[in-house]
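Lab notebook, bench 4. We co-purified these components, and the gel suggests they stay together. Before we commit to crystallization screens, I want a quick structural picture of the whole thing.
Request: model the full complex, all chains together.
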Amino acid sequence: MRYFTIFWLELLQATRDVRAGLVIAVASLFFVVAFTQGNERVGVTASAVAVSTAKNRQAWLAQPPQNPHGAAHFPVLLAKPTAPLASLVAGADGILPGHLVTDAHRLLPAKGTSAADAPFAQAIGTLDTAFVIGVILSLLAVLAGSDLVAGEKERGTLRLTFANPVRRNRWLLAKIAGRTTGFLVAVTLAASLALMIAGGVVLGPSGLYEGMASSAPNDVMGRLGGFLFLSAIYLAVWITIGAACSVFSARVASATLAAVVLWIALVVIAPRAVATIAELGDPIPATSPARMAIRVEEVRLRRQQEAMVETLKASGGLKGAGAITTTEGPAAVRDIIDAAAARAQAKADAPIANWRERQLTKLDAFGCISPTSLYFRIAAGFAGTDGQRHHEFLNQASAWRSAFLERLNRLEDRGIAEFSDYPSVAPFQFKETASQRIWIQQSASVATMLCMWLIILLLCFFRFKHYDLR
Amino acid sequence: MTDFYTSASSQAHLNLAITIASRVLKTTLTGWRGRLITIFWIVLVALATWSGATACKAEWQAYDAGEAAVIVAFSDWRAAYGSDPWRPVDLAAEHPIVRHLPPAPGRALAAGVSDAVGTWAAPANYHQRELEGRKGELTPLGILFGTLDLAGLVGVAGALLTIALGFDGISAEKERGTLALHFANPLGRGTFLLGKLLGVFAVVCCTLWLPLLLGVTVLGATGNIAASWDGLTRAVLFMLIGLAYLMFWTTASIAVSAMARSSAASVVALASLWLVVALAAPKVIAAEAASRHPVTASALLEEKIPALRAQSLVNYRKKVTAYKNGHLGATPKGVDAARLRLAYYDEFFARIDHVTAIDKTIRVAREHSLQTLAALSPTLVYQLATAELAGTDGARHRAFIDAVDAYARELRRWPEQRLITGIDTRPTWNELPPFNPGNAYAKTDLNRAFRHIGILLVLCALAMLAAWLAFLRYDLRLQGA
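Here is the predicted assembly.
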């Protein structure tokens, strides 16, 4: 009860303090900008995806009857829907392509990056909610924590406090908890205020409220819950870092200076340095040779396929066959060629894929040196604006294309000369990963963040326990 | 004292200002704050120099490997056809040629858009809109924060450390009560302000600018900046822009310090200014410029191309039919077929140009909007200027895409023209039309760089004017209150 009183007094003091007003003002201002720009960003993308997909579908349906192989040559647009929390966390969405177009003979590279349209804006970054929390609020949080103990030392009230039967670590824990709760209350108030001013935030896979309501709202809420939980822990980590500076310093000024230096090192420098360190001695390999090798292999395989078809023709094996079979051979030949093409692609891509794997492993390991880089990585994971969702999209698009071609080619194999049942081909629908799965994927990183918090707390306790009150 | 004010020359005022400046320089450099910041900054510059050199080297290695591979791939591709007869369409549609954007001349200084956009393109599509081989696509979250380059370091951390050096330039004197003592002597407020400004600026030059100069020199000495007149010009301008940028933050620090009653208030105001100007404003401005001039979504533009092609094909088929009618039903072959295909390509490309012209106009308007709005944030001015100087800005990237676009058309038209002149053999690598990435930027860079330095100096003058006006009206009796 005694420690609850300390907590409660600290909470009241934190909320009444002039700095709470400053936090609310600054956070509201930035949240309004972030929400408004996030809504606009997602709205533009969602509308472009909806219009272009609808136009493409319209063109598919409006085709005249033709042979199935001709239909398979139609360039179907496979667009990636906006990520569930893209309006809150831009993540890597701007760098990653947004769509690809199928072709009967090859899957064309994914295209449509925001970075291509506005490269400098992409290089500068986006002012999204994750940035407001990860960078701006983290500075306010570390400053909020930096006078927690040093203030008491400077005023001389620390000795008075411990003249009473109060345990040091429990007192410190109650103080940190009170200050953290007060800060989070101020941030929540600011976010609520900003939500009212900005008119809400756009959530959901289709980028609209309706989308959230119609397609698995629980998943969106699950992801949102993860993001909010993570953000709360992250801010708590920064308040605790501020408190640690305060415990280690005798004066508020030196605690504040140490807190700011730590903030610069961990927020401004470390996340940028992580990628550089990860590439130490392992620079990115040239990516274009793979593309060239695949192109040459395509020509070789086509000639090989032509030779196989000629042999079959000569032996009379293709009598009465459809257009595709006479040009590309029966299913057995096509399967051999497709398998060879897949092997060639995997071989050409191997150096890049291996480098990517190595880099991701290193980034995972080095990312833990800064709570900020860890925060942005997990936030993008919950939001669906990371590389993982993009690869899931590429996999699903590739599977859809294979099924699409397979179906049309089999019709040709069965001797059906004319295809007109266009509505029977269902449009591509990206299936979002369930939020439970996202939680499982991110659990290790969230646990790392919690461990980070715990370590800083233990450090505070250890130092404070041995602090000489004299 | 009266005599001094009425008769002292401007030289005497300057001498006084220099005396104040030299004292500020001496006390700060020998103090713990100056030492700590110097050490911290040297470590950061060393990291950024190493990072810039590593990135530059990696990009050159990838470029060289790609350029070497394309010749081998072309030879393999030729061999893959065996004894097949040569068809111009083979080169138009099936070639393995990839063209690479050479690393920017100042890549080691400023990363700019390097990691966000690609580095090569296959000139095979009808309309090139973006490059491939984006590093960001391989490790998307690895480049989320940008790389640790010298320009980024100065833009964000340099500004903050300048504030740390100058935030209490005048406010500390107010707090200590020494300001009134200064003005008990024959000392003008303007002279005092100038002395403080020069002093803090000298500290910033010694603490931040000189290590930066050392970093740039190391990059030049290790061959990461071209040892040419162009490379030297870029490096010198980079240092000058850095100086102008640091001068802005020095002036802002002194201005706020002159206005604030306490150092605590000064540091809070300056930190807020830094958060808004250096961190938030560039992002908001870039988003605003994009929002004012939204480009057509890539997918929407690509949707139009098949229809444009179909329209051109209709005309092509009509011409083929007309040819057949005029040649007793014979199918056009050889030179006649090449002429018809050439006419088809020209019509098709003209249609594409008509559609994409709007897109290009919007991009130019967006760029112009970004440049105009940038004046609101000195950090954005600095970032734009350094990226332009380094050649890592969007303009160079866009110019390369246009060059690849033109080359893709050339690879369709050239074999037909070659056939018309009577050559119908499969071309060798050396026979191919040359590719020009259009990399002449030095002159434009200089003009832009000087304009950006001008903007930064105007901002400095405005901040100084504000400081002078505020300080002139400051009531000395308030000090220590």
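The CA atoms of residues 63 and 102 of chain B lie 6 Å apart. Worth comparing against the SEC data before the next meeting. The mean pLDDT of chain B is 87.
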